[in-house]
């Protein structure tokens, strides 16, 4: 198994879900901690060197989105990946989840195999398209990307991108003019199998376009295929 820094934290008020996920992750060799509400989850995240948080949106005390915001706001947990596990499948819920800093989003009922694959993909430390970019600064029209600093500007206005949005943008820009299928992006950005039935790519593209503002039309939809970044 890939080397993991610390335990995976499962925050879910449904005991059956907590136990199901915990048992399967432990079978795969992961150390696991569990919490039944947001308050306990935050305490465990602050007091342990957590590798990843699997977080339910609907918690009895604090909404999962607020838990995610607090994790992102604190230096000790700001870089901890968050996978949201929830019964809410509306697009707005996904967008809000990604907006507050979630790295992935899995809907209940879920495939345990797929969940484990997603956990592994998030934790994997394999080279990525971002690592392969040769130029430390990429400039294309009104967009400027400082790859090493993980910073992006559009018309000199800095954008607040999540790590996944940044990786998605760099991947598209580094392949300007070339169509990228959803499957290819799942492999290269999320490091997940290309045949997984997921709208993760579409949701992230939508959110990325919103943040790009005046440069949003640089990310084109190629019907039936995927997406392409185009020259200005």
Structural class by sheet pairing and helices: alpha/beta
Strand order of the largest sheet: 2-1-3-4-5
What is the string of SSEs from the N terminus onward?
EHEHEHEHEHHEEEEHEHHEE
Largest sheet: 5 strands, parallel
Tell me the fraction of residues in β-strands, as a range.
Answer: 15-25%
Which descriptor suits the 3D outline?
globular
The percent range for helix content is 25-40%
What is the total number of structural domains? 2
CATH topology of the largest domain: Rossmann fold
Number of helices: 9
CATH architecture of the largest domain, please? 3-Layer(aba) Sandwich
Describe this structure in words.
With 232 residues, the chain is α/β, with parallel strands linked by helices. It folds into two domains: 8-123, Rossmann fold (3-Layer(aba) Sandwich); 129-229, Winged helix-like DNA-binding domain superfamily/Winged helix DNA-binding domain (Arc Repressor Mutant, subunit A, Orthogonal Bundle), CATH 1.10.10. It is 40% helix and 20% strand. The strands form three sheets. It has a five-stranded parallel sheet, with helices on both faces. β6 and β7 (143-146) form a beta hairpin. α4 (91-99) crosses α9 (200-212), α7 (163-174) crosses α8 (182-190) and α7 (163-174) crosses α9 (200-212).
């Amino acid at each position: 198994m890939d080397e993991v820094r610390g335990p995976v934290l499962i925050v879910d008020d449904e005991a059956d879900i907590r136990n199901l996920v915990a048992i399967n992750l432990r079978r795969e060799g992961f150390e696991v901690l569990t919490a039944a509400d947001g308050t306990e989850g935050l305490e465990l995240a602050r007091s342990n060197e957590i590798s990843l948080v699997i977080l339910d949106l609907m918690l009895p005390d604090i909404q999962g989105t607020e838990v995610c915001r607090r994790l992102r706001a604190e230096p000790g947990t700001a870089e901890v990946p968050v996978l949201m596990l929830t019964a809410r499948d509306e697009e707005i819920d996904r967008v809000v989840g990604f907006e507050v800093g979630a790295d992935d989003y899995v809907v209940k009922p879920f495939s345990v195999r797929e969940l484990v694959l997603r956990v592994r993909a998030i934790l994997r430390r394999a080279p990525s398209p971002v690592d392969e970019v040769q130029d430390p600064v990429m400039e294309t029209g009104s967009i400027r990307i400082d790859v090493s600093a993980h910073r992006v500007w559009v018309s000199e206005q800095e954008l607040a991108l999540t790590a996944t949005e940044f990786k998605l943008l760099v991947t598209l820009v580094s392949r300007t003019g070339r169509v990228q299928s959803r499957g290819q992006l799942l492999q290269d950005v999320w490091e997940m199998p290309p045949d997984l039935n997921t709208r993760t790519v579409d949701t992230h593209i939508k959110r990325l376009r919103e943040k790009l503002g005046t440069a949003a039309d640089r990310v084109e939809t190629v019907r039936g295929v995927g997406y392409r970044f185009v020259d200005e």
